[in-house]
Amino acid sequence: MSLYPSVLFVLLVTMAAAETLRPGFYAQTCPEAEAIVRYEMMKAMIREPRSVASVMRFQFHDCFVNGCDASLLLDDTPNMLGEKLALSNINSLRSFEVVDEVKEALEKACPGVVSCADVIIMAARDAVALAGGPDWVVRLGRKDCLTASQEDSDNIMPSPRANATSLIDLFTKFNLSVKDLVALSGSHSIGEARCFSIMFRLYNQSGSGKPDPAIEPGFREKLDKLCPLGGDENVTGDLDATPKLFDNQYFKDLVAGRGFLNSDQTLFTFPQTREYVKLFSKDENEFFKAFVEGMLKMGELQSGKGGEIRTNCRVVNSQALDV
């Protein structure tokens, strides 16, 4: 199984938007759309702060697999294995119900107008802003796809074990730069991850039977207690020292050897990405600026296959009518 998409897929998913994306796309058809999404995200954050971090990551997990088309949100059917149970998503992505709540509110205000794909883009932006990070103008006008593929997700999405070289190769295939990679990895400024994702780092890095030498000793002791060998690997740990605040602490932690995931810490140990980690650790404004630029570029990824405006983000419209 290849880690990366085929050449044909790379030709299909381009930065040239298949749909004409623009700010204020719903200004006439659903003028309150963005306010509704922000309000629903605020309610979700009050109820469970971790949920906004989860929803923010939907953009990456959706857009890298056949473009930003809400394929991630489709439930499995008897004839289709969707992306929710893909290797990088199962027991990891959560808070799909938040998107359901946002979509329900939008359908009440403007039935059949706002796509689920655009909901992901708006909700990701709002998650960052509500957690203290930057705010920005999103370009909207996407359509929702008619199918999803667990295999496509498995072939594309990186593992928590990924090193900087493989991550750079992956992002390059989507016309995203090394700077984009490091900045977008800063999404781990908020939220948590499972012990499952780091057991090899703690006890068998690169098959050595030893911990990753890049982990700062004091931090490793903390992780050993959180994630003991033979313990519950679904226990979660903070991705940085300020997991509810979107700031540049994530990069400060990487410089100090306190990155939770291997795919995070490798950004500091690898020369080509290290300078950006250092820059963002010292200058939060530079991080915010680069993060917004990366999110906007990633939001342009589209397959060019067209689609529809789903009324229920979990099913295509033809199936929704049968329910």
TrEMBL record:
Binding site for heme b: 188
UniProt-listed PROSITE patterns: PEROXIDASE_1 (PS00435), PEROXIDASE_4 (PS50873)
Keyword Glycoprotein: yes
Chain positions of site Transition state stabilizer: 57
GO BP annotation list: hydrogen peroxide catabolic process; response to oxidative stress
Keyword Transmembrane helix attached: no
Domain Plant heme peroxidase family profile: 20-317
Enzyme Commission number(s) of this protein: 1.11.1.7
Cofactor binding notes: Binds 1 heme b (iron(II)-protoporphyrin IX) group per subunit. Binds 2 calcium ions per subunit.
Positions that bind substrate: 158
CDD domains associated with the record: secretory_peroxidase
Organism classification: Eukaryota, Viridiplantae, Streptophyta, Embryophyta, Tracheophyta
Requisite cofactors: heme b; Ca(2+)
GO molecular function, one term: metal ion binding
Superkingdom per UniProt: Eukaryota
Disulfide topology: 30-110, 63-68, 116-313, 195-227
Protein's name according to its UniProt entry: Peroxidase
